[in-house]
Write a structure and sequence with these properties.
Layout lengths: L3 H44 L4 H10 L1 H9 L6 H8 L7 H5 L10 H13 L3 H8 L8
């Protein structure tokens, strides 16, 4: 039979595990925001494309909320369209969210949206490289 001390110890251990998981996710979110800013900087440096609107969104809402907003929008962003015309879909938010470890921050619906958007523009080869083991690339 389990006594109250054992229950307290078990519940404290579970609470500590949950706190550690929350801390890990919070740290991953911070790193993701830095990765979002990084793709903006790369677009500016490598393509002479200044993603001003995206940077404002990131500054105001953070990287994760911004990415989720863009993924759940009915249409792709102007930035996505511009990066397509520049042949740099690798610098899109959609491509970033499909890479490890960032994909852990998104649900299957959001990942599927990113995959479909990239696939619809012929980004299959690089997409398969990004997905290596994350989700089924035949989606």
């Amino acid at each position: 039979m389990v006594n109250s001390k054992q229950l307290i110890v078990a519940s404290e251990k579970k609470a500590q595990e949950l706190q550690e998981k929350d801390n890990k996710l919070a740290d991953l979110e911070k790193q993701f925001t830095k990765a979002m800013v990084s793709i903006c900087n790369r677009a500016k440096t490598e393509c002479q494309y200044n993603a001003t609107y995206l940077l404002k969104m990131i500054s105001k809402e953070g990287g994760l909320k911004t990415a989720k907003h863009l993924l759940n929008a009915k249409f792709v962003s102007e930035g996505f369209e511009k990066l397509f015309t520049l042949k740099r879909l690798d610098l899109t938010v959609e491509a970033l969210v499909l890479t490890k470890p960032w994909c852990e921050l998104f649900n299957s619906k959001e990942l599927e949206i990113a995959i479909k958007r990239l696939n619809s523009l012929g980004y299959k080869l690089k997409l398969n490289e990004l997905l290596s083991g994350i989700v089924n690339p035949q989606v």
